[in-house]
Design brief:
The protein has about 250 residues and is α/β, with parallel strands linked by helices. It has helices at about 15-25, 45-55, 80-85, 95-100, 105-120, 130-135, 140-150, 155-160, 180-195, 200-205, 215-225, 240-245, and strands at about 5-10, 35-40, 60-65, 90-95, 120-125, 165, 205-210, 230-235. The protein has an 8-stranded parallel β-barrel, surrounded by 5 helices. Helix 1 packs parallel to helix 2 (about 45-55). The chain is globular. The two termini are about 20 Å apart. The protein binds 1,3-dihydroxyacetonephosphate. 1,3-dihydroxyacetonephosphate binds near residues 173 and 214.
């Protein structure tokens, strides 16, 4: 089964609305590759101008977070229907920075994943271990728990649409990319976990990205691994280098 690669930028807390439009206009010609899915996950306030700026291109727009309620008294939060109405297709959920700085739990991530699917948004569900966990030899246990709890109550049909991003925390923003072997090993284990929870067809269909200091030099080898279906890119997604990552072949 051949899965279509998905290469997503996570802009994190960078770019004002006007800077965002300028960056899209700069990157648009560089990421014009119809062989892969290209997604720009941008700050909430940038969504509306970025959706307008990518019109007519191959770029799809994602959000970096979302709340799990429909609407109501949740000051400062963004509802799934707001994202959909604005033209968003993807939403990053459970990024390690949300877990670390904003206390998001696996249960929160699960509620968000289910709510996103209800609204036909594609969740990019993040998982990944800390350096301490890797050193303690509990990487697989930890990541398996994040994935299993994150997908609780999600049907096999829905799970096939989910994108899982494996991002070891020690590789994020550090310039230290996981080795190809380390990244492939965990992505393969995630696929086995999906097979155990669902079935072989679901495991074959689900797309698993690697993230953590992906750059133009490492993308080609990482994305060539059998269980790595693309990348979630932070720092390098804000630069022309993202074009080289999207055109990694
Ligand atoms: P960097 O590519 O900057 O390491 O960030 C990775 C990441 O967290 C993407 O979500």
């Amino acid at each position: 089964m051949s899965r279509r690669k998905i290469i997503a930028g996570n802009w994190k807390m960078n770019k004002t609305p006007s800077e965002a439009v300028a960056l899209v206009n700069e990157l648009k010609p560089l990421v014009a590759n119809d062989d892969v899915d290209v997604v720009f996950c941008v700050p909430a306030i940038d969504i509306v101008p970025v959706v307008a700026a990518v019109k007519g291109s191959n770029i799809q727009v994602g959000a970096e977070n979302m709340y799990f309620e429909e609407s109501g008294a949740y000051t400062g939060e963004i509802a799934p229907a707001m994202l959909v109405d604005a033209g968003v297709k993807y939403v990053v959920l459970g990024h390690s920075e949300r877990r670390e700085y904003f206390g998001e739990t696996n249960d929160d991530v699960n509620k968000k994943v289910r709510k996103a699917l209800e609204h036909d948004l594609v969740p990019i569900m993040c998982c990944g271990e800390s350096l301490k966990q890797r050193e303690q030899g509990v990487t697989m246990d930890f990541v398996r728990q994040q994935v299993k709890v994150g997908l609780q109550g999600v049907t096999a049909e829905e799970a096939k649409k989910v994108v899982i991003a494996y991002e070891p925390i020690w590789a994020i923003g550090t310039g230290v990319t996981a080795t190809t072997e380390q990244a492939q090993e965990v992505c393969a284990a995630i696929r086995v976990c999906i097979k155990e929870v669902y079935d072989g067809a679901t495991a074959d269909a689900i797309r698993i990205q690697y993230g953590g200091s992906v750059n133009a030099a490492t993308a080609g080898e990482l994305f060539a691994q059998v269980d790595i279906d693309g990348g979630l890119v932070g720092g390098a997604s804000l630069k022309p280098e993202f074009g080289d990552i999207v055109n990694y072949k």
